[in-house]
Amino acid sequence: MDETPIAQALRAAAPHALVDVVREAVKDTYGAVDVQLRLADYGMRSLQAVGPDAEGSVCIHTSPQGRAFGSQKPYMTRTAAGAVDVHLPVIIRGDNLGVLTVRMGADTYAEPILPELARISEALGHEILVAERDTDLYVLARRAARLTLAAEMQWQLLPGRACAREEFAIGAHLEPAYAIFGDNYDWSVSAERLTLTITNGMGEGVQAALLTNLAVSALRNARRAGLDIAGQALLADQAVHAQYGGEAHVAVLLLSFDLATGEVDVVDAGSPRLWRLRGRSVSEVRFDAQLPLGMFGDTVYETQHFTVRPGDRLAFGSDGVYDASSPGGVNYGESALARTLLATSLLPPSQVPGAMLRELSDHHGDPALDDDALVLCLDWYGRPGAAPVPDVPEGSDDTDAPEGPGGSEDPAGSGDGPA
């Protein structure tokens, strides 16, 4: 990105003054009437205004700002007085933080300035991520309600809500967003690999959050020491057992993707599960289940393998998702999950988790879910120029099924849902 004068001003600004700097700079440079920044709340239901003098929140699903947020493209509207509101998504490496709205007079707006405004929006997003180390302003703006202490701990532990590279795109969400306790996810990307973990600490409230925090920190420590995922699981198993003596455990699914080939190493140590949408077919990808972290402290974990192909969509869910039952006693994972995956196939992965969790809530009905729920969606594009994975003829053995003792692929969800 070119270092424009506005980008330089943002870089030099005090952490709490970023919006003020953008507002004054855009007014001076482009003749804007006003500038407003709104950030997505933790529940992904509203866009919350930043700053004490800003206008109120707006709904993500029904507002012009929400349309820009959802489409991840600029969207223009006109006011009754004829002014033009330019709504610009604030996106950082696939993670959609919010929307910057620039109000222009009818005689000052011109389409050629749109790319310049988009670059300003991107620069603002980068500076917000840096500024959050030193101010609570942007964290507070995301809150439509007070977080529980457990939820505060969990959200601070997360890497973000989305991530995108040329080989893949990820989106994830947790519910209840303001009272989550044991569910968590983590990822890390290098030049050659994507490491992904889906975690569920047993218990409720702060105790579950503390347990998950220990496990995720131990997994990160092992990963950063250069251990493979089996070694990461072993070290985290030892750390949790040393602290809790076998009285508490953490369920985790660890995956390491080769970005060049789509080959995936997997350690299944508990309850998180994986479903794959390939074409119009949904199937649960099952692995040889091993002991959750912390039960004995000396468990030796085995790695299994499977392969993803360009165009595959993977959906990961915690037990609070697939075990949630309808009033009639039907678990969401039996068929409704597959139908929702098919129905949301045209949405970007950043929007799929929220859509699935809304469908889950409708499936469950009243009263509200009594367990926390996590959904992570990963779209696999493959590395450009890489050799394609050979197709498997219809009716033959699926060579993409997990390798290893007990590994199997359940096609029970295949074909469920709308055509």
Automatic annotation (TrEMBL):
Residues 165-380 form the PPM-type phosphatase domain. One of its GO terms (molecular function) is phosphatase activity. Residues 386-419 are annotated as: Disordered. SUPFAM superfamilies: PP2C-like (SSF81606). InterPro entries: Bact_Sigma-Reg, PPM-type-like_dom_sf, PPM-type_phosphatase-like_dom. It holds the Pfam family SpoIIE. Keywords: Hydrolase. This is Phosphatase. It comes from Streptomyces longispororuber.
